[in-house]
Amino acid sequence: MEKKFLIIAGPCVLEDFDTAFYIAQVLKDLVQKYDFDYVFKASFDKANRTSLFSYRGPGLEKGLSWLEEIKGKAKVKITTDVHETWQVKPVSEVVDIIQIPAFLCRQTDLVVTASQTGKTINIKKGQFMSPWDMKYVLQKAQAFNPQEVLLTERGYSFGYRNLVVDFRSIPIMKNFGVRVIFDATHSVQLPGAGEGKSGGEREFVPYLIRAAVAVGADGIFMEVHPEPDKALCDGPNSLPLAEVENILKQIKDLRSVVEKYGIS
């Protein structure tokens, strides 16, 4: 049976339990309204911050306890990222999808350890990787029989402090026989452009989402916050929670066209 279009969304990082739980509840209801699958995303630790003084999150133990409680109370699926192999086992006991960050997609031990859990693995394509070379990353993961491997496009380094999206990546990686997700908010990030933190151009997120859906993406990843300008991480490229429903409407309408013409 064909799987539903997937929405992976939530705050960049866990700031406090109440905010995360509220976002999960609102997004779950919105996504179900448009008959998509939903997975709540938030990081317990952002290990690759620009500055030593940037907020990283509550840490593994507290973060996983929050995620487990959100999963149970909001009745949502959960994903979070791992940065080191020792984190994989405790994370796998809570989440439905283990996320491999873009910077770490070539780390063989991390990909293999995550895949050995039998969970679904979402591997983000590195900002330095061509879509063709993700075939070898995929082979590493599939060799250990995870439930499913997703690949996520999130932009490619374009000079200094800038990213560009080559939408050929989506059909190229889909030809490997896996579902491909488009990370709309990290794709408008301006790495390191915020004087010790990353900047971003969130006004372009809806445009890139429409393009990704049109070329056959199987899902959208987006970081969402009630007040992005007050977010402790990735605020400049995060979507306001109030704008999500309009974007879901657009995805729904575009998906009908994509399905009509058999784009996949």
From TrEMBL:
<dbReference type="InterPro" id="IPR006269">
    <property type="entry name" value="KDO8P_synthase"/>
</dbReference>
<comment type="pathway">
    <text>Carbohydrate biosynthesis; 3-deoxy-D-manno-octulosonate biosynthesis; 3-deoxy-D-manno-octulosonate from D-ribulose 5-phosphate: step 2/3.</text>
</comment>
<feature type="domain" description="DAHP synthetase I/KDSA">
    <location>
        <begin position="3"/>
        <end position="258"/>
    </location>
</feature>
<dbReference type="InterPro" id="IPR006218">
    <property type="entry name" value="DAHP1/KDSA"/>
</dbReference>
<keyword id="KW-0808">Transferase</keyword>
<dbReference type="GO" id="GO:0005737">
    <property type="term" value="C:cytoplasm"/>
</dbReference>
<comment type="pathway">
    <text>Bacterial outer membrane biogenesis; lipopolysaccharide biosynthesis.</text>
</comment>
<dbReference type="InterPro" id="IPR013785">
    <property type="entry name" value="Aldolase_TIM"/>
</dbReference>
<keyword id="KW-0448">Lipopolysaccharide biosynthesis</keyword>
<dbReference type="Pfam" id="PF00793">
    <property type="entry name" value="DAHP_synth_1"/>
</dbReference>
<dbReference type="GO" id="GO:0019294">
    <property type="term" value="P:keto-3-deoxy-D-manno-octulosonic acid biosynthetic process"/>
</dbReference>
<dbReference type="GO" id="GO:0008676">
    <property type="term" value="F:3-deoxy-8-phosphooctulonate synthase activity"/>
</dbReference>
<protein>
    <recommendedName>
        <fullName>2-dehydro-3-deoxyphosphooctonate aldolase</fullName>
        <ecNumber>2.5.1.55</ecNumber>
    </recommendedName>
</protein>
<keyword id="KW-0963">Cytoplasm</keyword>
<comment type="similarity">
    <text>Belongs to the KdsA family.</text>
</comment>
